[in-house]
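Q: I'm writing up a methods section and want to include an example of the input and output format. Could you take the sequence below and give the corresponding predicted structure tokens, formatted cleanly so I can copy it straight into the document?
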Amino acid sequence: MIFEKLNKLSFVSNYKRIMPYVKPYWGRALLALLITIPIGSMDAVIAWVLKPYMDIVMIEKSIRATSFIPVLIVIFSLTQSFLNYAATYLNAWVGNRITMDLKYDLFQKMMRCEPAFFDTSTSGDIQFRFNNDVDLACNGLLRNLKMFTTRLFSSISLIFVLFYNSWQLAILALVVLLGALYPLATVRRKIDGIMKDTVFSGARVMTHYNEAFTGNRIISSYNLYDYQRLVFKDTLRHVFKLGMKMTKKTGLMSPMMHFIISLGIAGVIWLGSWLIVHNQLTPGGFVSFITALLMLYHPIKAIGSNFTNVQMALMAMERVFELMGRTPAITNQQNAYAVPSKIKTIQYKDVSFSYQTGQPVLHHINLDIPVGKTTAFVGPSGGGKTTLVNLLPRFYDVSDGTVLIDGKDIRTLDLDALRDKIAIVFQDNFLFAGTIRQNILLGSPNASEEHIRRAVQSACLEDFIQSLPQGLDTEIGERGILLSGGQKQRVAIARAFLKNAPIVILDEATSALDNQAEAIVQQALNNLMADRTVLVIAHRLSTIRHADKIVVVSQGQIQEEGTHEELLSDSSSLYAALWRAQIN
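A: Here is the clean output for your methods example:
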């Protein structure tokens, strides 16, 4: 599971890690930060001016000397509102740009992840880790950075007003403030595990939506509505329980802080009354102090309800940078060799492989792949055929032994250059949303119209394309849903033609097609296979009877090798048994 144990990182540490993403926009980010200084400091103005205002009005019974103060308060409040809007806009701009850059880098990171990473992850995991976590982290942390800096300067200025009016009351107020903040110190420890479970449950919910979308025809054809509804309801029930558990852990925090602060206010009123009676504090000074204290305490009371969101944002940032720091299992070695322009030999030497430790899938494979010829891999399902072939483009790395091209371990070859030499046609080829032309051009983005035409012709797509009103520019929908299986296969073959790689892998490319579609696709495949090194994984033995070499794979081992005729000459061979089972 990809939700591994998270490192304990501090608030400051997270901001240090995000700073390289802030740097390109430091001018606006700094301006947004600087604006928070007057925004916060202006909070103290209202509290400060109340002292002379109240003393003059209440004691001297005069309003002439203070008539400007209400106007001053309005001007300061208007200025503060404008600056607050400017800071919000700048923070949103910087935050969205950072979010965009992080998502871009994470998307590149995701594309370089090895297949094994995706084998153990759900679509919900991927979407949550690579998309939602970035939104939560950036929006949460940057929004709270503005709140933090604004409250910091507001608190400093308000504390100054407190001491200006009465140092005795100020000390009492600050002691209570520290006591109110103490519960926050234990929150992370209480909710750490719950938050990780909540994220996992959120990913499960997304997985349900994705499966309902991609598997809608299975759900309809098998009437799985009740089954899917109950599974989804169970997941939602689990999310609800986690939410209630979170409330139990954090729900008392805000009321507790509110109660402690109320004690502080009560103590200040009691001590302030005593100071006024003994002429150590003016009524105006007391009103100014109470106003500053309430302005200082109010956001502190609100922190309890917001602190969980802050912690969620911090943990999301940790997960984001955990992914950013992840090194793919399949990477280039330093000083990787170039792949030869003309490959002479392909060899498997004593190759073993396991997806999971202690559960070997391939055992000591030794095999020579004839270059420029067709090698077919056949055998019972689950015997290791696809795994064996997937080692050549380094979808996985061998556990033991080596795969060699011209005597060099493929792990020492440049990975992108190696895969440039290989074109693959899968059983269920993935087509991207867009047009037929766009999907074919993935084989060679700069191909000319003439090259595209030849690829279409060789893939037996010409008649089909001509029957479409928009021809090559016809939209095919997400995953090519608007095309039949045979049409999708031929688009994939045209893409492989355009790539023009010297090595072609055909992974049961016709096994899911009907006889008519198979005949057309097989002709397209025969065109693709000409003058290339071809590795065919076949279920229907009739499609590979003319292969130059047939390798029978069973239980992770090579059981037999030879041509069709050679393998059939031994009636006791596994290949002969498979052949008899298919023709009878």
